[in-house]
Amino acid sequence: MKGVFCLTEKQEHVMIHLYHTNDLHSHFENWNTVAQYMQEEKNRRQQRGEAVFVLDIGDHVDRFHIISEATSGKGNVQLLNEAGYDFVTIGNNEGITLAKHELTNLYQEAHFDVLVANLFEPDGSRPSWAKPYELRHLDDGITIAFIGVTVQYDIFYSQLGWRIEDPMVILDHVLGEVQDKADIVVLLSHLGRTADEDIAKQFKGIDVIFGAHTHHFFESGMLVQDTLLCCTGKWGQHIGHVKLEVHPKTKCIVSKQARTIATQQLNGYKYDDGTLEVLQRQSEQLMEETVVELKEDLTVDWFAETPFSKMVASSLKEWCGAEIGMVNAGVLLDSLLKGPVTKADIHRICPHPINPCRLLVKGKALREVIIKARKREMEHMELKGFGFRGKVVGKMVFDGVEVIPDTIQGNKKLLEEVYINGEPLELERQYVLGTIDMFTFGYLYPELAVIKEKEYYLPELLRDILKGKLIELSTSVKS
Question: What class does CATH assign to 14-283?
């Protein structure tokens, strides 16, 4: 790989332009501007004889949006096609919120290459729709290697029928393959900022890393050793542009510059060809199917237990074959009113790409979770991430748990007794808990995050469980 900084005699340089987005998460409010800018910049650069490529670094799809839900992400691919993208990699939202057949079919009509070097079929073969890397040969004799990697969520990918490998190990192998073939190496990395920095330090010869996943933002890139790191934040709020100047004879990079452009400042790029509007209308039609007829309203209160939130906790308990069901009231964004309830209604009130999870949790840890969940600051926490697409966590609702409070000291509620299905909680006993996967991630409940005995249910999302329960209750009432 020759893509390193070097000093050369004065000569006209080859200009290479790389435009990029990441973590759109189906926030289409800026998309018409992004698409029009990409199209016009690509045409303008090509007319000047300059090389130009348009890249997306994953999580373009997010099933919180009705277009992505109704089309299983194919609407996103149509938008990427029309905007003139050349390469994409997948994020966890494409990889583990779609069923295997949906991901396999997602890119059938793509006009771009999908690069994912560390995803495999269970037998070790590569998916038919993805490549580990692609070489592009410019007219000036310069060859660019584009490589893609995505974050390694082993449990989730294996549950869906995929095999995901360590991106660092795979990257080392792929770099070995391309080192004698490419002058410039570009990495599409849906791994997060820390991993990108580690890659830049560990591997020589990667010229640019386009990042994603952690929604970090580098206004003018960040140079780590000889590697330029770039990322545009999230939701299409910024577009990234990297300009490489390459000496045509030595094929060395003379300079590399990164910048970001705020889409709100691109007032001249407001052309709308109607595609988004058409996709929205088609998606709404697809989601008009009536799921159930409600005999009474199901109301939501984020800070109090209601029959509706209790129903969700009960559904998780049953689905997971657990002794206890646990869910936060904040996952229900709105009430369901008496009368017909459509697929769109269920998606609207429960848009999260969150899966059911079965945990084996010790009584002592369960008690700690119950205490923490009852604190006011936890109920009022404004949560972003972990698959949650709501506003606040809300009250924790249980099925199979009865709490008898003792006293309140400040903001801490002490517990006199906790009963599990009518029996006093035993601190050393193991309990089977049915809940949602977001409680097993990160800082919310470390007591649950460290548990090894857990099982995630995929591809079912929480709204699928809710839908099934509503149908079940409706059927039982009719009979």
Answer: alpha beta
